[in-house]
User: Fold this.
Amino acid sequence: MRILLFSFLFLSWSTLSSQSLKLKVNEEVITSSGLKVKLTHAGKGKSVAKGDKVKVHYTGTLVDNRKFDSSRDRNQPFEFVIGMKQVISGWDEAFQLLKVGDKAVLTIPPDLGYGETPMPKIPSGSYLVFDVEVLDVFKDFAPKPFVVKTKQNTLSSTGLEYNVVEQGKGIKAERGKTVEVHYTGFLENGDIFDSSVLRGQPISFRLGAGMVIPGWDEGLGYLNTGGKALLLIPFNLAYGETGRPPLIPPRARLIFNVELISVK
Assistant:
């Protein structure tokens, strides 16, 4: 059973922000969010940061020691990208405090875990305890906005801004055709809210049929197969006044890397 994915004793005590936290072996600390971390073995490898992909082993228990999941039992390490909301928020925070070779015990309060939502073997409102080990890290794994050849974007009559990185040499994307697309969506602060690249699975849809936001229906129409573009989509061509809470705020201007894989 894998429940971490989303579609989430001590010798001394201190309350610290994650940014200032320095871990010492056998010392348990609590961050300002309420996450408890106790380093049980110090590794010597690379540190872990937002956007890195990590490979970890873990065993998850409730506070009464009832086990609910374990990658060790399956003999199958678990991989995820830090800070991309692929796991519970307590994990996204905790692993940024660790480095390769570290072993630690994490105690995660409900609001950093599954909250009041019951999960298999996890009652609502549960504190979660994880015995974790960082096996490896792949630095800067998360996508970044495309580097454009010119900083001058093209502004369409609808208000869409776009910058073609590669035009592509294949079939042109036209209304009514089925397109296959890889994409990563960014908020203006740089946070990724969705990415087919991280999932390793492009999406397919009929262009111009209203199956995606209007900014996509328009923006992809400027490309041929193999083309790549940076789309800057105003809120009225995206998710409007209300956004898509909790990931996309109201009236959000969205930035997309898009790559046109195929047109049929």
